Amino acid sequence: MAPVALSSACAGIPDVPIPDNPTMNDRFFLGVGAFQAETSTEARLDSAAFGLGATLDFEESLGLEDKSFVPFGMSRIRLTDRWRLELEYFQLQRESQSSLDVDIRWGDEVFPISTGLDVRFDVAVARLSLGYAFFRRKDKELGIALGVHQAKIEASLEDSSGNGDLGELFAPLPVASLYGGIALTDTCSLALRVDAFSLEYGAYSGRVLSQGIELVYQPLRHVGLGLGFRSLFVDLEASDGDFRGKIESDFRGPIAFLNVSF
Predict the structure, then answer these.
(1) Hey, which end of the chain has fewer CB within 10 Å, N or C?
(2) How much of the chain is in helix, strand and coil states, percent to nearest 5?
């Protein structure tokens, strides 16, 4: 009898096999599903000619829905046993009609009280990261990653005559990440991740904080399903360039997806 097995038997500890979960070791992982995003958004569009605009709450003041189902996708490629490449994506498009109860300035436009507005706020977020597992076993791993949160945001207000202004922001923001995963059984695994970034440089400043956790149940060798939670906080401000103003947006809620791995 091997020394480890002998010592375990003497101590009365059962010899429990290490879980062999495909999500922890397959080279390719792909998940597609939906994100129920609960959103809060404040934005301000400034003018080079007239200065600061009004800071507007797009849900409370302008009538955008604060909960939406949006498409969600993620993929992972294990380049080697310790190196991996990850991509996540979601897109949220919202529109509403609102009547103002105060005068506001949005960019170069001034909208007086009682003006009826068409409101639009669209966001698309992609996260791409390269990670290295400094601790790696068959059933568990812990690693760090460097990547980019790429956010494309469009916010516009327009009255019935077609007068309005559009704020567009395309911001590829670098992030540092900590991630981990563990196989609970041969068919169940748990994964989590935290991304963070903060920068102030000249006319620009920004912060990103993202968190994710997911439980995957894969009863078939290559097919499973997952449940989890995602949150993303974005705070961006610029006083020069194509976008002048500030956007502060928070997205959070559950995700559900089907996955394949091989």
Answers:
(1) N
(2) 5, 70, 25
Residue spans of the domains in the chain: they are 29-261
C-alpha 197/C-alpha 116 separation (Å) is: 38
C-alpha span between 1 and 42 (Å, rounded)? 67
In degrees, rounded to 5, the angle at the alpha carbon of residue 145 between the alpha carbons of residues 75 and 205 is 105
CB within 8 A of 191, min separation 6: which ones?
Answer: 23, 179, 180, 181, 182, 212, 213, 214, 216
- Distance (Å, rounded) from C-alpha 21 to C-alpha 139? 7
How many helices (H) does the chain have, and how many strands (E)? Answer: 2, 13
Residue 98: strand, helix, or coil: strand
Q: Give the CA count within 13 Å in the CB-facing half-sphere of 42.
A: 8
Cβ atoms of 237 and 205 closer than 8 Å: yes
Give mean pLDDT, residues 12-17.
64
- Residue whose tokens read 């949150």: 231
**CATH annotation of 29-261:** 2.40.128.90
Q: What is the mean pLDDT of residues 18-26?
A: 94
- Asked whether the CA dihedral 31, 248, 177, 252 is positive or negative, the reply is negative
